[in-house]
Amino acid sequence: MENQATKDRPEERRRVRPEERRARLHGRLVIAAVAGCAVLGTVLALLPAERTATRAPAPAPGAQALTAVAAGVPAALPDLAALIGERESHLRRHPEDAESWAVLGTAYAEQGRRTADTTFYAKADVSLQTSLKVRANAAALGGLAALANARRDFRTARTWGEAARKLEPKRWTTYPALIDAYTGLGDYKAARAALERLTELRSGPAVMARAAAVYRDRGWREDAAAQLSDAAAGARAPAERAAYLERAGQLAWERGDREDALRHFQEAVRIDPDQRAAQAGQGRVLAALGRTTEALNAYRMALAKQPLPQYALELGELYEWLGLGQAARVQYDLLRAVVERAAADGADEELVLGQFEADHGDPASAVRRLRAEWLRQPGIAVADALGWALHRAGQAKEALRYARIATDKVHGGGVRSALYAYHLGMIERETGQYAPARRHLREALQINPWFSPSRVRAAREALAALGEVPDEGVPDADVRAVDAKGVDAKAVDAKAVTPRPYR
Which of 251, 240, 258 lies closest to 215, judged by CA? Predict the structure, then answer.
């Protein structure tokens, strides 16, 4: 009743105490704030969430190698090892997975090629053949072609590659293996046709790198360099980019640009420390720059992780040039052992063994080996080596035939090689063809004035004996080596080598 009386008397409503009024106002504000927060929360919930800049997580090493292997591009060695372990584990649980067998076999082949451990080749063969037994597939056939190329068995590589192409004509990863096989057999027309088909099916860094190899063999060095530069710029993984930089360095070395070659090789090793071909490339260039101790170290590092007979031959020749005969013989013994071990695992290293025997061993043995190699796979490199072995064995007239095949720009590959031109010039000099000999010896020094310490000196001496000296551009004081007299292995290891010019 008291409340009703209050309502009936307006003056009583006006007599609300100030503290009571403030309390009521505060309550209303709290209610409004709560309601406002609820509305604001609803609005914010309906707005799109703000996107923060986040980087996608890097793929697992095995996944990275799988992508590389599937695309036929170089993969990092640790990633390859991870992929191999993952596929081995998977296949123990799923032995009927033909695709995984093909991937494993191809990864084994790449691991063997990158490490020069030829025992991986037998594992690759078993895995790839198992894949074919489970199901005929182009991936396994292409893997067998790549394996045969790694073993330098180019006829077999061609057989497997053509079978893969027949099964799946549009599988682009088959064509790089075919290009390598055709090149090894000296069939440059087929190699160019395979490249044309490859470029119709695919573009990108891997295709550019293959195009560069074909262009190089045709003598188109500028085009090859441009392709490799673009390939390196577009490479997606460090190991892939390092491989393309190494090839670019090799091109620069072949044209005699020592500084550019060294930059490419050093960058390749910086990006991928397992890029042993680039380390060996550094050895070649550093020797030409007179930095002989560094050159020896570079070769040793390359050989320690990738014991290829070619590296052993080059290091042995450098030791021999320095007058370190015992150290050279150690490398030559290593070369023979590596070739023998490779042969036991189905790899063919007769070419480099023939090259070694021709200059440092038994030229007659070199001729026998290289004749057989020519019958198996008559590529340009074999023609050059056989011609030189015949020359060293005293069969200069027959030698001339093969030396001309190696430098035939019309029917052959057309590659511009200082070594090939040097061999041809020396053989022509031996057969009394002095004018062509002058021309080709000069050409060798113009193509790459630093291609070999001992051979540069021999070319200069031969030109002088023929009554003509090289152009002023041919190196004198800039090309340096070590005085062989008084230098021993301890001095070399102690970095006490003193350079002098090639003469």
Answer: 251
Rounded distance, CA 28 to CA 53, Å?
43
Burial group, residue 182, by CB count within 10 angstroms (0-12, 13-18, 19+): buried
Tens digits of residue pLDDT in 179-215:
999 999 999 999 999 999 999 999 999 999 999 999 9
Nearest-angstrom CA–CA distance, 386 and 391: 9
Give the pTM. Answer: 0.82
- Please name which of 455, 438, 450 lies closest in space to residue 474, comparing C-alpha atoms: 450
Q: Any residues with CB less than 8 A from the CB of 156 and at least 6 apart, and which?
A: 144, 148
Helix axes 292-305, 276-288, angle to 10 degrees: 160
In this structure, the number of other CB atoms found within 10 A of the CB of residue 159 comes to 16
| pLDDT of 60 | 63
Q: Is 394 left (phi over 0), alpha (psi -120 to 50) or beta?
A: left
Backbone angles phi and psi of 443, in degrees to 5: -60, -40
d(CA 256, CA 350): 28
d(CA 462, CA 441): 8
Q: Longest Cα pair distance anywhere in the chain, in angstroms?
A: 142
Distance of alpha carbon 212 from alpha carbon 195, whole angstroms: 10
Helices and strands (H, E) in the chain, number of each type? 27, 2
In a 13 Å sphere around the CA of 255, the CA atoms on its Cβ side amount to: 16
pLDDT at position 70 is 80
Measured between alpha carbons, how far is residue 263 from residues 120, 144, 257 in Å? 32, 35, 10
CA-to-CA separations, 267 to 223, 245, 272, in angstroms, rounded? 21, 7, 9
Q: What are φ and ψ of residue 337, in 5° steps?
A: -65, -40
Q: What is the SS3 assignment for 48?
A: coil
Report, as ranges of residue numbers, the positions in the chain whose pLDDT lies below 70: 1-62, 411, 413, 468-503
Distance CA 348, CA 184 (A): 12
